[in-house]
């Protein structure tokens, strides 16, 4: 509703205070604004209501005019995020990179492989499409340069479609990556009753003799995986905790839905790796005394769920994981200690190669991090849930 305003220099009055209009988010009449702008620069304008008066000098008036113009323009152009766009999406990028997005009323979380997921503030909603700028992505071959990543996305005829525009800061060529998406159903309101879940007979994923049933995920990286003394071993010179490296990750040929997984691992001091459940959720494998603790430490679903305690053994000793994944809820037992109890996992973790929780995925071992050893890897699939 537009409020009526009257204005006269100095001795005039305004029937309602300006602060009231702003607080009520009413439309500010352009006529008053123009009259306000046309006043001589050395004059003073008094806004009043009973018992209270406001006096504005030239500087304050200029600031106020700018604020009102921006507010009027924003009010004229703003739209709400369409309801059919809200929620979580598994994305299919032309580039082939795994990606995930979660759209809220004012911000978006979006992760492309190992990048940050934000949140990123929605800058504009126009014609049913949202616009936002994701984090600046550092370039691999251009010193300290970065690529600005602008995203536009909407739903057209019931189908998600969007584009990511990459703009280098050094004047390089602008590129575009188009994408579509599949809606992810909302998380179940209650956790599964694991007492009613039936599991099949455990099958061995690693035979202790060779790498049958496993393959490198990246064909263009160095291959550090081998079998030594009955152990599955990854050898790499990398010692830092950076997100990626030049050695290949390893995955099972088979893909699985919900399951119980048993795996034993040995990690040395200041070393780091990970086991991805269905290629989507990373169960952290890391030295218990490293800087990575809590939501990044042993027993964690990396960056998503922190363990109740650090139950890992000292570096150089074997650790045992028993992990149950049912209906996007995870239970983690580390060395016999339940550190996560049937908690929901919201969205894939960084480095995931799958982003659709309704589709099967592999057991996926990080090889682009540091050296690690595995043994006794078993999986029992869920036969029947609730």
Describe the structure.
- Helix content is 9%, strand content 40%.
- It has 3 domains: 18-77, no CATH class; 83-184, Beta Barrel (Lipocalin); 194-384, Jelly Rolls.
- A hairpin with a 2-residue loop joins strand 8 (146-156) and strand 9.
- It has helices at residues 18-23, 30-38, 58-77; strands at 45-49, 52-56, 87-93, 98-103, 107-112, 120-126, 129-138, 146-156, 159-168, 175-184, 198-199, 203-204, 214-216, 225-228, 231-234, 250-252, 259-266, 272-277, 281-286, 318-326, 329-334, 337-344, 364-365, 372-384.
- The strands form 4 sheets. Strands 11, 12, 14, 15, 17, 20, 21, 22 and 24 form a 9-stranded antiparallel β-sheet that branches. An 8-stranded antiparallel β-barrel has the order 3-4-5-6-7-8-9-10. A 5-stranded antiparallel β-sheet has the order 13-16-23-18-19, with no helix packed on it.
The total count of helices amounts to: 3
Q: How large a portion of the residues is in β-strands, by DSSP E?
A: 35-45%
CATH topology of the largest domain: Jelly Rolls
Number of domains: 3
**Mean pLDDT over the full residue set:** 83
Morphology: globular
Biggest sheet character: 9 strands, antiparallel
Helix content: under 10%
Within CATH, the superfamily of the largest domain carries the name Exo-inulinase, domain 1
Low-confidence runs of at least 5 consecutive residues: 1-56, 73-77
Q: Note the run of SSEs as H and E.
A: HHEEHEEEEEEEEEEEEEEEEEEEEEE
What is the rounded distance between the termini? 52 Å
Question: What is the CATH-assigned architecture of the largest domain?
Answer: Sandwich
CATH C-level class of the largest domain is Mainly Beta
Quickly give the structural class.
Answer: mainly beta
Nearest-angstrom radius of gyration?
28 Å
Q: Give a count of the beta strands, DSSP E runs of length 2 or more.
A: 24
């Amino acid at each position: 509703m537009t409020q009526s305003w009257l204005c006269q220099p100095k001795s005039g009055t305004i029937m309602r205070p300006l602060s009231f209009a702003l607080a009520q988010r009413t439309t500010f009449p352009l006529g008053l604004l123009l009259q306000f702008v046309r006043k001589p620069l050395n004059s003073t304008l008094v806004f009043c209501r009973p018992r209270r008066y406001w006096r504005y000098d030239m500087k304050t008036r200029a600031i106020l005019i700018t604020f009102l113009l921006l507010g009027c323009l924003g009010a004229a152009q703003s739209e709400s995020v369409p309801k059919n766009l809200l929620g979580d999406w598994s994305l299919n990028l032309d580039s082939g990179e795994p990606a995930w997005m979660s759209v809220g009323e004012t911000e978006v979380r979006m992760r492309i492989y190992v990048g940050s997921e934000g949140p990123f503030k929605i800058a504009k909603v126009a014609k049913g499409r949202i616009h936002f700028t994701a984090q600046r992505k550092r370039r691999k071959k251009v010193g300290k340069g970065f690529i600005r990543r602008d995203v536009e996305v909407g739903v057209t005829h019931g189908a998600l479609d969007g584009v990511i525009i990459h703009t280098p800061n050094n004047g390089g060529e602008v590129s575009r990556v188009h994408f579509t998406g599949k809606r992810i159903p909302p998380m179940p309101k209650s956790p599964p009753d694991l007492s009613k879940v039936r599991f099949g007979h455990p099958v061995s994923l690693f035979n202790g003799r060779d790498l049958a049933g496993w393959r490198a995920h990246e064909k263009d990286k160095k291959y550090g995986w081998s079998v030594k003394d009955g152990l599955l071993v990854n050898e790499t010179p990398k010692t830092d905790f950076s997100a990626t490296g030049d050695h290949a990750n390893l995955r099972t040929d088979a893909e699985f839905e919900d399951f119980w997984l048993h795996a034993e691992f040995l990690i040395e001091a200041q070393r780091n790796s990970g086991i991805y459940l269905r290629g989507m959720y990373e169960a952290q494998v890391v030295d218990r005394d490293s800087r990575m603790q809590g939501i990044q430490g042993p027993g964690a679903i990396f960056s998503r769920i922190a363990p109740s305690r650090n139950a890992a053994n000292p570096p150089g000793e074997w650790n045992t994981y028993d992990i149950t994944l049912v209906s996007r809820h995870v239970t983690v037992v580390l060395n016999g200690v339940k550190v996560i109890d049937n908690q929901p996992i919201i969205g894939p973790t960084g480095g995931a190669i799958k982003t659709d929780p309704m589709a099967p995925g592999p057991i996926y071992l990080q090889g682009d991090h540091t050296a690690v050893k595995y043994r006794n890897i078993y999986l029992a699939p869920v036969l029947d849930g609730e």
